[in-house]
Amino acid sequence: MPMKPIQTESTLQTLLRQFQDCRHQTEQICAPLTPEDHVPQPMVDVSPPKWHLAHTTWFFEQFLLGPFNPDYRVYDTDFAYLFNSYYNNAGKRILRPNRGLMSRPPVQEVLNYRSHVTQAVTDFISSRSTAARALEILTLGIHHEQQHQELLVYDIKYILGHQPTFPVYGEAFGLQAEKQEFNWVPMEEGIYSIGYQGDGFCYDNELARHRVFLEPYRIANKLVTNGEYMEFIASGAYSDFNLWHADGWDFLKVNQLTAPLYWHQQDGQWLQYTLNGLVPVDPTAPVQHISFYEAFAFAEWQGKRLPTEFEWEAAAEQFSWGQVWEWTGSAYLPYPGFHKAPGALGEYNGKFMVNQQVLRGASVATAADHSRNSYRNFFAPPSRWIFSGIRLADSL
Amino acid sequence: MPMKPIQTESTLQTLLRQFQDCRHQTEQICAPLTPEDHVPQPMVDVSPPKWHLAHTTWFFEQFLLGPFNPDYRVYDTDFAYLFNSYYNNAGKRILRPNRGLMSRPPVQEVLNYRSHVTQAVTDFISSRSTAARALEILTLGIHHEQQHQELLVYDIKYILGHQPTFPVYGEAFGLQAEKQEFNWVPMEEGIYSIGYQGDGFCYDNELARHRVFLEPYRIANKLVTNGEYMEFIASGAYSDFNLWHADGWDFLKVNQLTAPLYWHQQDGQWLQYTLNGLVPVDPTAPVQHISFYEAFAFAEWQGKRLPTEFEWEAAAEQFSWGQVWEWTGSAYLPYPGFHKAPGALGEYNGKFMVNQQVLRGASVATAADHSRNSYRNFFAPPSRWIFSGIRLADSL
Amino acid sequence: MPMKPIQTESTLQTLLRQFQDCRHQTEQICAPLTPEDHVPQPMVDVSPPKWHLAHTTWFFEQFLLGPFNPDYRVYDTDFAYLFNSYYNNAGKRILRPNRGLMSRPPVQEVLNYRSHVTQAVTDFISSRSTAARALEILTLGIHHEQQHQELLVYDIKYILGHQPTFPVYGEAFGLQAEKQEFNWVPMEEGIYSIGYQGDGFCYDNELARHRVFLEPYRIANKLVTNGEYMEFIASGAYSDFNLWHADGWDFLKVNQLTAPLYWHQQDGQWLQYTLNGLVPVDPTAPVQHISFYEAFAFAEWQGKRLPTEFEWEAAAEQFSWGQVWEWTGSAYLPYPGFHKAPGALGEYNGKFMVNQQVLRGASVATAADHSRNSYRNFFAPPSRWIFSGIRLADSL
Amino acid sequence: MPMKPIQTESTLQTLLRQFQDCRHQTEQICAPLTPEDHVPQPMVDVSPPKWHLAHTTWFFEQFLLGPFNPDYRVYDTDFAYLFNSYYNNAGKRILRPNRGLMSRPPVQEVLNYRSHVTQAVTDFISSRSTAARALEILTLGIHHEQQHQELLVYDIKYILGHQPTFPVYGEAFGLQAEKQEFNWVPMEEGIYSIGYQGDGFCYDNELARHRVFLEPYRIANKLVTNGEYMEFIASGAYSDFNLWHADGWDFLKVNQLTAPLYWHQQDGQWLQYTLNGLVPVDPTAPVQHISFYEAFAFAEWQGKRLPTEFEWEAAAEQFSWGQVWEWTGSAYLPYPGFHKAPGALGEYNGKFMVNQQVLRGASVATAADHSRNSYRNFFAPPSRWIFSGIRLADSL
């Protein structure tokens, strides 16, 4: 995981503060849950909240405390097997679809594990002249945990949204109206520089910074709204094969989809499950919980298209973003000059660079300061439980 | 569910006591569990303990309190949807494979629900001249809950036995050595009467009592032991197709089976997961957790066979039984004169009379006085998470 | 495969004639087919006609010529791999679902193979004092090929019936009206002898002859007709769960069944594919191509039941049978004293004695003299491509 | 399907000649097959040769003769249902996995159908002043049939290569040694124009021609050979997860892959099935029949990468290509300004632009003059039955 290092005394304190805030924030996200809510895995992409709490902790133990602190004693040697996600280099692990079978350890023991590791990291960072590489790992661990915070919100919503009783989690993570007037942002043809530039942290997939040539285009200054999406549905779009990719059409048919995830039609009205319960769909808020296939089909229906990730990045300072992640027309591929780091941390991004689509922006569930113009999020095209939406573009 | 009715004043008190003991016993079985242990469904045949606690309660609400007590107010109208098992006549329900997704209601609310219904039944039975049919339903409900107590033990063992940490539940439900000397019990040819006879409770599948002719046979006075089963394994039986049904051989290959469920080989020694943790296999105890296919193959290997359920019943007073259920060579079919009762309770047994094999006897997890000579247990041939074993027979 | 042996000079000629007729008949069944029709395997239970032609030939080569004629040279050593069906003792073979991938050898070469083996058997039987065991194998091989003749008809019908163009095969194998007046045949309680008795050929599963006690019952003198079955359908039976086994109900729903196999509704009329093309359903002919689940549900709907195989055999001389095989209420289990023969021929019947239901009688596709009162046919409960029908019974 | 039109008198004759040659060539490819070989569909991606023969014929009937020749009478109205591939706009069709069940019509009737349509097209084109759009469709139909010629070769190889007897098809379509010395072709950074330019035929996916910026790179002048690939295997690459995409690693494990398709290890030697039978792997010939995952992993192992499709096209005149298609690192996405044509022909390319990887070049099975520098072939990453290989590239 190549990243911009360099830590002074004062940044060390900042980093420690970030670490502690991050650890606290994860626990806050789970605070409204019952112990039982921490257990289920209703689909393979969703992990039990208990697992997120433990896995983000194991990451610090495995990659920071273990290698860099010779005095550290592993909290429980079984946990590596239970809470490794996908790092082949870090040893065996339970199969992903079996995460929801692990009732043990109970939530309280996972919280104890968290406290133990949070304290151990704090002591380790505070008390000695820490190697620069260890501080890099710490930084990566914070960003890693921030990513899991967002997944936690997705997964909690999925777990609660599949209870027949539609329970209330709380008021957080709701979407607001997109209030600005619709405008096209025109962009001129030319060579643009793409990828991270600066001294802060970035992921390896944002590098190397490089040049792309863009033909002239324009990009919308606001997200597609629920109101527009209801028109799309009402037009019969979910049964018009001409709007869809072949794979997308199969996906619709196999799963019998007729609306975004969490939408339910009752007496002719569209309701949606939110973390605040089942409520009428707000036509002014951005549409959310749609797959790449649906985003593509909506753009087809409009006679427009999705922006590429390069078009998005080149224009990103000219519109506001951050309620939902935005599907782009770009497949997730390495930038010129990208190389995987050796070992487990090299598995972080590179091995997923096939069969995935890039999303840009951020969502209401994204940790503050976690995203940036060059940030590349990615998911498989059918993903709907993520906080995803649509911004349109057009060639000129 | 036709059963022998007639309740006097004193039997009413006995019945109420049985009901309360039964309710208490179910809760005792779950007492060693964490809230998290109540949630997972690691395979479709296993139900979450929370579900058993609630379903056995719903049964009394649905079939006793609702129809017979006009003053009863349903505890929560969502619960019928959540906790109906398979009664089509009692309305819609969540799909069986989704039971493990229901983190709500939490365990504590299920226990509140239990208390509410236990009290309502107690009040209802105590305070008024209850219809004979209501007492029949109460009796059935007790026997139904006793069946679920046994399933609870199976399911808890499966959930805990699939934790990588092999947690300890407690000392209950262990098997003892079969200490008696091996003997064959010889049985003469003749007409035997089969099926329930008496004034107590029985299930509809034990009726009508009828006659069968048996050719001469003999039946073992003890169960096959782990020691004998280890010899069977050591002989290469799991790779000798000649010993197996075609379906059984496929079952072995698809699931890569080489030993009973819960057996693990470590350094050349066989260990088994028990509710008391991972321990060496005891060669003197009866073999347990084998499918019908394995029971059949073992008998083939011995040059013997499994008894039919009729042979078992005819001889049952001449040997001891009750550590594990015993696979018979009989498919689960209706007795002459069997008729399903109308409505939901008719779904109790009859609709399962295909593709199942009969087991006779009882197990250490069977409620006291729940079983009897004429009792017909049944499971699909591949079932291994049940407390099942082998008794041999032979034609003369 | 234990069978009644003893061959004199004149029976030797009879046997040879039977063999040659049998070989010829198999080829006649395939005569109306194109080479292309010999190839597909539209579901796993169906084998390509080419495969049947070759497999029945391989059987004589493998079990008769190879072991008993030291001068015989195997026609093609690859064929054992291609045309062994399920005899684990006879070596490796292609997986059953892959039979339809084998375009080679072409039909003409299979016919050459048939001629070669037919001639070799004829020469072998004619020219030397053949061992009694060889004649037993020859007899078994004829009966084996007769069974495949019937499967050939089923499989040809399935292949042609799944062509969108519903091609005509020919006039053979159609059903006639059941013209007799409906009557119940009453049967008294008592001990009946069951199983083959006599000096002719029988399968091992018809032995040992043994005694069963039957409670009093009655059995219909005619088969259920298409007309009656259309009433059953019209009554809503395919959506009334109370009539069905739990497994049967799942089977209906998963496969979206609403009528027997080969039935098609057009403009409110029921048509059925026959080997003579798509024609209106004849209400006077027996219903055909129904699963055990449908047979059971029909009987439930009538307030009757299916006969057991013992009831059927005890009464079989008192009604006519032979248009379609008749589902019984009996699971396919060994008779008392049954033992598998050692080696490959022991795999013929015994290893299928689980998860199957017995059918009794014969069908229009059964070779003349192939069936008898004691004959036990068996198929899995969902089977519908076989020539199966319904006879009702009732307890008295 | 936008394409460069304009037909003069003499080009009309050329076009007709191309049409007739093309039709003849398809039939030549099938000439070595038996009728039986035309039937099987051993995996869902493979179509029966009979289907290709008919489908390419239906294409001319459906899109050329039907719409443009008012006198044309459809040969058989059932054929549209049988031989439409994936054109939703052209009506219903049999499900793709069921193509191998259609034994009817027989091969000879399909050949008759071909003759009929070939003649009808010839007459139609020869005898009247044909609309320019009709000539465009004819041109497209020829290119369409050429694509199916290549698929025919793949599918024939798959069908024959899965016969246990490894039959010989003939000498065609073998690979030669890559004899040139290995060299890197260096390429400078800059803006390159990508996409089709010229007056001939091209597919819509090659347009619009547009500009891309390429960072400096180099690209190999020869394909990776079997010899190099055997070293890759021998190094343990198929069990080193660090070389693989996560999806690729799953693909290996699920399918238990250890070598390219058609490779068989015998006595420590690698053999491969070719259309000329089973022969030792030639170390000097290019590796063939590998998935995108394997191409990627090989490049990782070499410390290199696959070229993007833009890098390939920019450099294509500087190396020879054409024995096998070359996997690129580019996902199959629309070019700027791409729009689907309306109606069925718009389904030709656009709806597949997700979850596919681009291949560039041509193969020994590609029709002469069918490919070009701008030609974009595409397949899903796991595809191995195609004639695919590897060319390496590197960033500078």
TrEMBL record, chains A, B, C, D:
<dbReference type="InterPro" id="IPR024775">
    <property type="entry name" value="DinB-like"/>
</dbReference>
<protein>
    <submittedName>
        <fullName>Ergothioneine biosynthesis protein EgtB</fullName>
    </submittedName>
</protein>
<dbReference type="Pfam" id="PF12867">
    <property type="entry name" value="DinB_2"/>
</dbReference>
<keyword id="KW-0408">Iron</keyword>
<dbReference type="Pfam" id="PF03781">
    <property type="entry name" value="FGE-sulfatase"/>
</dbReference>
<dbReference type="InterPro" id="IPR016187">
    <property type="entry name" value="CTDL_fold"/>
</dbReference>
<dbReference type="InterPro" id="IPR017806">
    <property type="entry name" value="EgtB"/>
</dbReference>
<dbReference type="InterPro" id="IPR051043">
    <property type="entry name" value="Sulfatase_Mod_Factor_Kinase"/>
</dbReference>
<keyword id="KW-0560">Oxidoreductase</keyword>
<feature type="domain" description="Sulfatase-modifying factor enzyme-like">
    <location>
        <begin position="184"/>
        <end position="316"/>
    </location>
</feature>
<dbReference type="InterPro" id="IPR042095">
    <property type="entry name" value="SUMF_sf"/>
</dbReference>
<feature type="domain" description="DinB-like">
    <location>
        <begin position="18"/>
        <end position="151"/>
    </location>
</feature>
<dbReference type="GO" id="GO:0052699">
    <property type="term" value="P:ergothioneine biosynthetic process"/>
</dbReference>
<dbReference type="InterPro" id="IPR005532">
    <property type="entry name" value="SUMF_dom"/>
</dbReference>
<comment type="pathway">
    <text>Amino-acid biosynthesis; ergothioneine biosynthesis.</text>
</comment>
<dbReference type="InterPro" id="IPR034660">
    <property type="entry name" value="DinB/YfiT-like"/>
</dbReference>
